């Protein structure tokens, strides 16, 4: 590496460190815990899954390093500092640089075959057309457990590399690999069969679909076992799928013990089931979640699927703590069903920043959520995510963050 690359990264790491050890940043841990422990001080506000190709405000995201590895470090720091500077949210910066354990995953025996269609070559959000790779009993028989291998040598090599560059400025720490590990079988099935074929077979070949789900659930349970054996779980990660993760309600673990599922969050999701009844959701998903997520200390369920009318079946999941409520759910119905027993992970509509920007529309949506939560004594967080575009105008997110913080701080 050249000295200029080193100077650039060290300067950015210093800026990051100063924020990470500030009292303001440290206080956010208390804020996160209050929400997740059902003792909310006020809702946490976050923004994630940002269309970075449209966000290069004043050229501040332009990378200047020449070396590839150094550009990777520069990228991390520039993007974190950009979010902290412009998006007035409750974003938390860890007071160390995280080196995730390098882990190799083998195949589960059946791979995805797809065609994609992009409207913007710079946007990673594209349309997918999936081919059906699970049509017969023979196809199901091809599915098998994956093998996880911890690449200790590669992990420690990168740790040494980063420590040499910034270790005297910002602590460098080897951390876990699988954070908030989730059973996402129906997402996988959607990609292995295609959406239309999946939904058709749920109705016409229910036993066949149960056998697929049973196989993928068993694969997941074995993956959890391997993660525990390889000590891949992380107890200190601040987020679980974009939402706050800090809590006092997970069993603590010492630095010398292996981290077990009971020490971390688990996660469940069945996004395609936004198109099925509660009864079908219960039969084809909930019963498997109950089994697969049982070992985890706390559970976060849901992603983009509307769950406002399905809260009662989700309550069967042991240690359920957080439930995703999307723009396609009725916020009042959801808050009433969730009450004071769970955290409502509220997801505002990304369309409100994706075309134009109407302050009244944004404020109305956030205020309605706040009123529903207050009426039903809900702890909740606000996470704007799945943002495929801001119409080329970063100001949309900047304005949204200011309004969201105003609403949250008024609670």
Just give the CATH class.
Alpha Beta
Using the 3D structure, state the CATH architecture: Alpha-Beta Barrel
Cα-atom radius of gyration: 22 Å
Distance between the termini: 50 Å
* Category from helices, strands and their pairing: alpha/beta
Summarize the helix and strand pattern as letters: HHEHEEEEHEHEEHHHEEEHEHEHEHEH
Summarize the amount of helix as a percent range: 40-55%
- Low-confidence spans: pLDDT under 50, at least 5 residues? none
As a percent range, the share of strand residues is 5-15%
Query: How is the main sheet built?
Result: 7 strands, parallel
Strand line-up across the major sheet:
1-15-14-13-12-11-8
Number of helices: 13
Number of strands: 15
Please tell me the total number of domains: 1
Look up the CATH topology: TIM Barrel
General form: globular
Q: Averaging pLDDT over every residue, what do you get?
A: 95
Defining key terms:
about 400 residues, alpha/beta, TIM Barrel, seven-stranded parallel sheet, two-stranded parallel ribbon, 13 helices, 15 strands, globular
Q: Mind explaining what this structure looks like?
A:
The chain is α/β, with parallel strands linked by helices and 411 residues long. Helices cover 42% and strands 14% of the residues. A seven-stranded parallel beta sheet has the order 1-15-14-13-12-11-8, sandwiched between helices. It has a two-stranded parallel ribbon with strand order 2-7. A two-stranded antiparallel sheet has the order 3-6. The radius of gyration is 22 Å and the shape is globular. The chain starts with a helix and ends with a helix.
């Amino acid at each position: 590496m050249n000295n200029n690359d080193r100077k650039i990264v060290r300067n950015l790491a210093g800026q990051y460190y100063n924020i990470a050890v500030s009292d303001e940043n440290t206080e956010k841990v208390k804020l996160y815990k209050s929400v997740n422990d059902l003792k909310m001080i006020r809702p946490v506000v976050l923004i994630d899954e940002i269309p970075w190709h449209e966000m290069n405000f004043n050229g501040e995201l332009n990378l200047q390093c020449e070396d590839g590895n150094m550009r990777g470090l520069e990228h991390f720091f520039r993007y974190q500092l950009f979010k902290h500077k412009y998006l007035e949210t409750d974003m938390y910066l860890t007071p160390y640089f995280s080196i995730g354990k390098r882990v190799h995953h083998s195949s589960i025996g059946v791979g995805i075959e797809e065609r994609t269609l992009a409207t913007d070559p710079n946007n990673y959000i594209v349309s997918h057309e999936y081919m059906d790779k699970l049509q017969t009993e023979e196809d199901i028989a091809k599915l098998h457990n994956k093998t996880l291998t911890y690449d200790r040598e590669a992990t420690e090599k990168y740790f040494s590399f980063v420590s040499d560059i910034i270790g005297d400025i910002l602590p460098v720490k080897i951390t876990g690999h699988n954070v908030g590990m989730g059973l996402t079988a129906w997402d996988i099935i959607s990609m292995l069969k295609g959406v239309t074929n999946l939904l058709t077979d749920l109705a016409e070949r229910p036993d066949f679909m149960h056998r697929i789900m049973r196989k993928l659930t068993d694969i997941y349970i074995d993956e959890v076992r391997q993660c525990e054996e390889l000590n891949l779980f992380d107890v200190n990660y601040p987020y679980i799928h974009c939402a706050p993760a800090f809590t006092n309600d997970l069993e603590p673990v010492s630095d010398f013990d292996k981290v077990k599922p009971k020490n971390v969050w688990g996660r469940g999701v069945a996004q395609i089931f936004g198109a099925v009844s509660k009864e079908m959701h219960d039969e084809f998903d909930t019963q498997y979640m109950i089994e697969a997520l049982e070992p985890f200390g706390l559970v976060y369920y849901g992603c983009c699927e509307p769950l406002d009318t399905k809260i009662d079946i989700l309550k069967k999941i042991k240690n359920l703590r957080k439930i995703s409520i999307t723009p396609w759910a009725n916020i009042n119905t959801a808050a009433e069903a969730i009450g004071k027993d769970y955290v409502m992970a509220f997801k505002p509509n990304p369309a409100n920043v994706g075309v134009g920007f109407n302050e009244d529309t944004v404020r109305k949506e956030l205020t309605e959520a706040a009123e529903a939560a207050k009426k039903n004594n809900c702890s909740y967080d606000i996470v704007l995510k799945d943002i495929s575009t801001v119409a080329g105008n970063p100001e949309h997110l900047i304005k949204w963050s200011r309004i969201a913080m105003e609403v949250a701080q008024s609670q």
